[in-house]
Amino acid sequence: MGDPSGIGPEIIAASLADPAVTALCRPLILGDRGAIERGIAVAGANLSIVSAPDLIPPADPAPGILYLRELSALQPDQMVYGRPSPAGGDACYRYICEAARLCMDGTVAAMATAPINKESLNSAGHHFPGHTELLAELTGGHEVVMMLAGDRLRVTLVTIHEALAQVPELVTFDRVLATIRITNESLSRWFCKAPRLAVLALNPHCGEGGMFGDEESRIIAPAVAAAREEGIDAVGPLSADTLFHFAAQGGYDAVVCMYHDQGLIPLKLLHFDDGVNVTLGLPIIRTSVDHGTAYDLAGTGQASPASMKAALVMAAQMAQTGSNDAIQDPSPSGRGCPKGG
């Protein structure tokens, strides 16, 4: 459910009121009854809640029913709109832990998360920068990669939530190569055969022959070469100021970016409403909205559910691909991802 003080409950209600979403999956909400009831009211949805403490939703769920596993019983003063609380942060932690457990034991096929507030998570004693790092620990300490995705563009990140001043020392050969490998393996598993990857430079104009930095020749180019030796279709380093034009036109299936804003600025320019955050490298499927708790909109009914809907749809599609254990690739060349996948 995410942060009860944010827009999570209302965008969940709005998303699950859409038959196009519930036709693809059987949603089980992990969260708080009071928060979800309030979210239904804000969304103006004709929905009712059925408590599901032990069971998953039936194979043919009735329309207009939300199946809820109640993992908290927050008081009104613990979920005031726009005001993060330690109780809310602890509740979010429990929702995530239970979702990961259900995915790991095979009870559910995938998890899709609404936004959390990192301040409230940490104030409750759970010291993680966000979902990604917490899920990596909960599922066995796997090396993970954050991918943001929409119909026109996918980006993955070598470094995530790091101070910009620290990025150059964190962009290492091993980290760049691992990101390329995980991106390739995950796209091949869930989205398309033989994905085409573009790997960005760190510095302007690829360092301009060393005038603006040498990470390209010293770190990134050798990592790309190593990936190509493994059979991965990766090219780079490429200059970020021109590459995204070609990627958005379908020239690449994903762009490996060196730091957070390098990838998220173009992604959100194209997919502000419907982008999806996917954690690659986990043994489970996890998608999420690509935005925050939007405290300024919480409770107003103005928050768009588009990203939540897209996250649910993508999780369902990934689970279906995994159950089929095969990807149908309609491209004539047999390479690359179909649009919208």
Automatic annotation (TrEMBL):
Record-listed E.C. numbers: 1.1.1.262
Cofactor: binding details: Binds 1 divalent metal cation per subunit.
Coiled coil: none
Domain of life per record: Bacteria
Binding site for a divalent metal cation: H161, H205, H260
Phosphoprotein as UniProt keyword: no
Gene3D superfamilies: Isopropylmalate Dehydrogenase (3.40.718.10)
InterPro entries: PdxA, PdxA_fam
Pathway membership: Cofactor biosynthesis; pyridoxine 5'-phosphate biosynthesis; pyridoxine 5'-phosphate from D-erythrose 4-phosphate: step 4/5
Keyword Glycosyltransferase: no
GO molecular function: 4-hydroxythreonine-4-phosphate dehydrogenase activity
Primary location recorded for the protein, binned into one broad class: cytoplasm
Enzyme class: oxidoreductase
Alphabetized UniProt keyword annotations: Cytoplasm, Metal-binding, NAD, NADP, Oxidoreductase, Pyridoxine biosynthesis
Localization of this protein: Cytoplasm
Catalytic activity: 4-(phosphooxy)-L-threonine + NAD(+) = 3-amino-2-oxopropyl phosphate + CO2 + NADH
Region ranges (Disordered): 322-341
Necessary cofactors: a divalent metal cation
Binding residues for substrate: H131, T132, K268, N277, R286
Further comment found in the protein's record: The active site is located at the dimer interface.
Family according to the record: Belongs to the PdxA family.
Assembly notes: Homodimer.
Record function comment: Catalyzes the NAD(P)-dependent oxidation of 4-(phosphooxy)-L-threonine (HTP) into 2-amino-3-oxo-4-(phosphooxy)butyric acid which spontaneously decarboxylates to form 3-amino-2-oxopropyl phosphate (AHAP).
Name of this protein: 4-hydroxythreonine-4-phosphate dehydrogenase
Organism classification: Bacteria, Pseudomonadati, Thermodesulfobacteriota, Desulfuromonadia, Geobacterales
